[in-house]
User: What shape does this take?
Amino acid sequence: MSGTQSYVRSLERSHLSLTRPDRPSEFDLMGLRWDLLDEVFAPVFSPSTAVALDLLGLTDAGPGDRAGSFLEIGCGTGVIAVRGALAGCERVVAADVNPRAVENAALNAVRHGVGGRVRAVRSDLFSALQQERFDKVFWSSNYVRAPEDYTYRCMHERAYVDPGYRAHRRYLAEAPRWLAPGGRALLHFSSRGDLDELHGIARACGRELRVVRTVAVVEGEYGDDVVEHLLLEVLADGGDHG
Assistant: This one.
């Protein structure tokens, strides 16, 4: 296992992000100001949120032509969900298993004037959602694999590692079921995860993964290591979304 794929290192990052003295209560990203609550993943200490915005084409803060509905799994501070609403999505659901993240996403939706279009819900992946369908489902995942028997010590660690890729298995199996006709289920993964295992899980679930876009990022804490970030589309066999 390389240093970039070490789950121990990712857990150390999680602990440091929560405890470092310069952790802010607000931060700037893509020209906007955002609230950051304690116990919530901090985009200011990781490039993954900015990379996800780039992969989704949401780096422009202004309105666009992205009408329709958008579900974000693992919303954290709500940056991606809010940017989706600002770009034109008419109905946005920001879901997270961490109750502080749900509160954080709601705060940022109100802060940026889209509280009426962004609904923040506490949900373990899709568990708390009603019978609704979306034009786009997206998860910027906790792509570092931890051992199957690892037990989370706090809610914050869930943003960093996935024991045995249990959450990834559920997402690949369930995401296409929440799509409206013509909708797309998307996953942000990276070379810090095990892409071969992910493809194996997809096949076992009757899914196919298609690379939509990639972005290479030099992540400073890993020296000169280049981390490849991927936007993957989760395809159901035969185009069946049900």
